[in-house]
Amino acid sequence: MIFAKEAQRLLNTHAATAKGDPFFFYLPFQSVHAPYEAPDRFVAMYSDKESPHYIDDMDRRVHQGMVTALDEAIGNITTTMKALGFLNTILWFTSDNGGPLPTANNYPLRGGCVLPLEPPSPQHARARTHAHTRTHTRTHTHARTHT
Q: Which end of the chain is less crowded, N or C, counting CB atoms within 10 A of the terminal residue's CB?
């Protein structure tokens, strides 16, 4: 939430001083990443056993709380952007290599924090690279790309 509030402050400052000048804004959220912590109000959303959103596993519950907090932060930033008239804007979201296994659900991709994510679909082309190790044995790395 700290990053989102600072982003909103910077957007307000830019709107007040730059009067329509284009700008580049880079905001690298650290969520959802270790350390696995979320404000209690977000974890509580998944703690009520009577709720359809209940999650039994506490690690997964905290993880989902982190995702929800991130979603709220992005929503607050985009609401500020709209209110300030930043309508001609590109928002670019990237991610790393998926959530930690076994608590994260990376569906429809496979993998986790220590594994490459691979689309499981057979419609993807397969590329193969070869590398030599210090012992001169051959290893294979498979990568899938969209065709």
A: C
**Contact, 62 vs 42, CB < 8 A?**
no
Name the token pair of 70: 């991130």
Is residue 140 classed exposed, middle or buried when 0-12, 13-18 and 19+ CB atoms within 10 A define those classes? exposed
- Please give the residue range of the domain that contains residue 28: 2-16+23-112
Q: Is there a contact between 36 and 12 (Cβ–Cβ < 8 Å)?
A: no
Judge whether 122 lies within some domain.
Answer: no
Is pTM, for the whole model, over 0.90? no
Neighbouring-strand partners of residue 118: 110
Residue 93 lies in a domain: yes
Report pLDDT digits (tens) over 22-51: 888 888 887 777 788 899 999 999 999 999
- 140 is a domain residue: no
Q: Is the peptide bond before 102 cis (omega within 30 degrees of 0)?
A: yes
Q: By the 8 A CB rule, do 34 and 59 touch?
A: no
* 54-63: Cβ within 8 A, 24+ apart: 57/103, 59/103, 60/103, 60/104, 62/36, 62/37, 62/38, 63/32, 63/36, 63/99, 63/100, 63/103, 63/104
In a domain, 36, yes or no: yes
